[in-house]
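Bug #2210: token dump truncated for YicC family protein?
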Amino acid sequence: MIKSMTGYGMGEFSNEHFKFKVEIKAVNHRYSDISVKLPRHINYLEEIIKKNIKGRISRGKVDVYINLEYINESAVDVKIDTPLAKSYKEALSNLLIELNMDENIRLNNILSIPDVVRTERKELDQDMVWEVLSKALNLALDNIMIMKETEGKALRMDMLNKIDNIEGFVQKIEDRAPVVVLDYKAKLKERIKNLLEDNVPIDEDRLSNEVAFFADKSSIDEEIVRLYSHIKQFRSILDEDDSVGRKVDFLIQEFNREINTIGSKANDIVISKYVVDLKSELEKIREQIQNIE
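Reproduced locally. Full output below:
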């Protein structure tokens, strides 16, 4: 199934301790490039997150944003440095005496001093963290895959329409090819007749040899056969379940090679026009391929 490289998916999951929100954004890219942004104290999960994403998304630039919200206050320890607080209180009291000031020292004066109150995050149960995060991650992946597959269906239909157009132009070139040789023979015969005197006969054997040489030199039968084969392969690849982006990208290069050969060998203005039409349709397909996984 064709999948677009662009998409967005979001997933949330929580337990009694914390809640994870995962957002995944993907855009087209030649290779697989995954970037994960998550809280620093769970950085150890980055590689397993990437591994899970690679199992679902084979190509494209993927940005993953992970937010962790603590639900249970017991996940954080609050610690007060009592000796430090006493030292500050004593120092402030002495300062008031030295300055001969009649003021009271309040608790908030002490608590606002750096390092008197510290918050420390309790050590997390790594298995529990991954259990919750993986569920949020899979929900986000499910959602982004829905979007990628929906857009992929539209891309597939568009490319099939364009490959139908290409097949039509190839058929026109195939029909035109024999006429090119007949036109060449008629024009050559007329040219020779104009050059010779009226009473000098045309050497039909030499004329036939010259026409045969031209027909062999300008033959595009092999290129047409290969183009039909490429068209059949293209349609078959679009029906595959695996990632097809690189396959069709390579096949388009083969299309282009055969079309260029036809353009250089045909030596006919009508076929040259069809070659231009073929290249135009091929370029449209190439642009679409840049968006499929």
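Output looks complete on our side. The CA atoms of residues 138 and 148 lie 15 Å apart. Marking as cannot-reproduce; reopen if the truncation happens again.
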